[in-house]
Amino acid sequence: PDILDPAVTRPGRLDQLLYIPLPDLKSRESILKANLKRTPIAADVDINKLATLTDGFSGADLTGLCQRAAKFAIRESIEREEKGKSPLKELSKRHFDLAAKDARRSVPPHVVAAYEEFRRRYKTGSSSDEMPAAAKM
Q: AAA ATPase AAA+ lid domain location, by residue (predicted)?
């Protein structure tokens, strides 16, 4: 929003503002479940807790977390097979813990604040040509 020319935001140009915030707890749970619907997961995986721990994550961040957990499980399963053991049948909490070590939010808090300020500004119909301070990055 910080690079929009004020002329673009005048009445009649952008009649609707569509802002999709980062997912809330319920949405994060749904996103995690959707990502894992075809993946067997162990009983020790608590989706609600995982959703709580990933506050501020985008849908893509959550998808990446699930993919990394699956990769850890695949690697472990291959190692088990090489040792003559049976392969893993499901993702466990351990795999998510390993994946979470490197997981990062892709949208920093200051960027979220800038978009929130932009949304508030244009929702209220401000006519000032200067962008809000939070949007100046």
A: 44-80
Q: Which residues contact 58 (CB under 8 A, 6 or more apart)?
A: 22, 23, 105, 106, 107
How is the chain split into domains, by residue range?
A: 6-127
pLDDT digits 0-9 by tens, 39-90: 999 999 999 999 999 999 999 999 999 999 999 999 999 999 999 999 999 9
Instruction: Return d(Cα 119, Cα 92) in angstroms, integer.
Output: 40
Class of domain 6-127: mainly alpha
d(CA 33, CA 47): 7
Return d(Cα 38, Cα 85) in angstroms, integer. Answer: 24
What distance in Å separates the CA atoms of residue 44 and residue 90, rounded to the nearest whole number? 11
Cα gap 88→43, rounded to integer Å: 14
Tokens, residue 97:
């813990």
